[in-house]
Amino acid sequence: MRGGAKRLRLQACDEANVTDPKTNTQVKAKITLVTDNAANRHYVRRNVLTKGTIIDTDKGKAKVTNRPGREGVVNAVLI
User: Is 72 exposed, middle or buried (0-12, 13-18, 19+ CB in 10 A)?
Assistant: First the structure.
């Protein structure tokens, strides 16, 4: 990257940092399934995570709020 900074790439992930908006708490949740991806409908079959993807976790359905391929971590908000 410009300025000598390093960028983390996410190749595979089975956990997400999930925020509950009602209690404003954050927990790690296991990702079980990708249910919807607005970027490309074929990404659902391949379980590709992009910003805006709806995922099933052990805490409930959540929406990915960051860019996992660029940041190296999955952040999501419960729906």
Answer: middle
Q: In which residue are the tokens 């409930």 written?
A: 60
Q: pTM score, two decimals?
A: 0.88
Give the dihedral of Cα atoms 28, 9, 42, 30; nearest 10 deg: -10
pLDDT at 16: 97
Collapsing DSSP to helix, strand or coil, 71 comes out as helix
- Written as one string, the DSSP assignment of 11-53 is ---SEEEEEETTTTEEEEEEEEEEEE-SS-TTHHHHT---TT-
Mean residue pLDDT of the chain comes to 93
Tell me which residue range forms the domain holding 43: 2-78
Give the SS3 label for residue 57. strand
- Number of structural domains (the chain) is 1
